[in-house]
Amino acid sequence: PTPQGAYVLDWELAQFDSALDDVFRFRAVQIGLPEVDFLRQNRISHRFTLALEPGAAVAADPLQLPLASQSVGLVVLPHVLEGDPNPHDLRGRPEPVLMPEGQLVISGFNTASLWRVRQLFTSRHAGAPWDARFIGLLRLRDWLRVLGFELNGGAFGCYAPPFRQRLWLDRFAFMEQAGARWWPVAGGVYI
């Protein structure tokens, strides 16, 4: 990945590892991004990826989510909603396949961040993540509450400006601690 991509991926993997370490259910599914194992630290024995991209254990359309009702205890959506033409229409997606008390973990790019400002001034043809639809956390929380989900945690990260070069990302590494303290909801990524 690019230095920007590595910066985001490193932060997200650490967050997913922390969030999923103690989640025990029968089955776990990662929807999208099959080339990255966001479930790597989870101890659920039956876990798999579902996507149309090569490398997924189950080749299926994530918008259709062809899994049995209440068959999965953990669903992970790393940046899946940002590429969805109707991200607000979560009905028929993770909710029916989740077991009672199941968990849903979502990551996305924050609309209240320097990353969003960069997106506004970057061509949509520049590729990911600049061609994605960033979804605000407040909007996502409202969608999840309407579906009956309870929020039980989250984090923001990637406070450094979205520089292309590793040198500049390293020079602005101090912003991780400063951002978490002084402008906590302005991180480039949320989980």
3D architecture notes:
It is built from six helices and seven strands. The chain has 191 residues and is of the alpha/beta class. The protein has a seven-stranded mixed β-sheet with strand order 3-2-1-4-5-7-6. The longest helix is centred in the first third of the chain and has 18 residues, at 3-20. The model has no long low-confidence stretch (mean pLDDT 87).
Q: Report the β-strand fraction as a percent range.
A: 15-25%
Low-confidence stretches: none
Shape: globular
State mean pLDDT (0 to 100 scale): 87
For this entry, give a set of tags.
single chain; 191 residues; seven-stranded mixed β-sheet
Short account of what is shown:
The chain has 191 residues and is an alpha/beta fold. The protein has helices at residues 3-20, 94-97, 114-120, 137-146, 166-171, 174-182, and strands at 27-31, 46-51, 58-59, 72-78, 98-109, 156-157, 189-190.
Task: Give the arrangement of secondary structure elements.
Blueprint: H1 3-20, E1 27-31, E2 46-51, E3 58-59, E4 72-78, H2 94-97, E5 98-109, H3 114-120, H4 137-146, E6 156-157, H5 166-171, H6 174-182, E7 189-190
Parallel strand pairs: 1-2, 1-4, 2-3, 4-5
Antiparallel strand pairs: 5-7, 6-7
